[in-house]
Amino acid sequence: MKAVIETGGKQYYVEEGTVLYTEKLDAATDSKVTFDHVLMIGGAAGNPYVEGAKVEAKVLKHGKGKKVKVYKYKQKKKYRRTQGHRQPYTKLEITKLVA
To answer: What are the residues whose beta carbons fall under 8 Å from the beta carbon of 29, sequence distance 6 or more?
Structure first.
């Protein structure tokens, strides 16, 4: 069975055993997380969410993504700014889909 869940303002297409990287969640490593915002499960689509459907996941780790360089520049004005950013993430493994 497959499902579409919503977390962190993004949608993910998952099934049991899927490992995915989401926006950082407030959950400890090796703990369980339940997603109630299920947009589709099996073949049933919600309006906007499927009632009574849940997706359970296990938190594998927390970390930061690769560095992104932000460079601002204005020609002929001697204006240059460099800034780096690393987006925090949570690595999850989908363990159970409940319809």
So the answer is: 59, 60, 61, 62
Q: At 70, list the tokens.
A: 């932000």
Among the listed residues 16, 20, 64, the one whose alpha carbon sits nearest the alpha carbon of residue 7 = 20
- pLDDT tens-digit series, residues 14-50: 999 999 999 999 999 999 999 999 999 998 999 999 9
Residue 46, amino acid: G
Task: Indicate the pTM of the whole model.
Answer: 0.85
Q: Which tokens in the block code for residue 9?
A: 């303002």
Token readout for 77 is: 């004005």
Residue 22 gets the label, from left (phi > 0), alpha (psi -120 to 50) or beta, of beta
SS3 37: coil
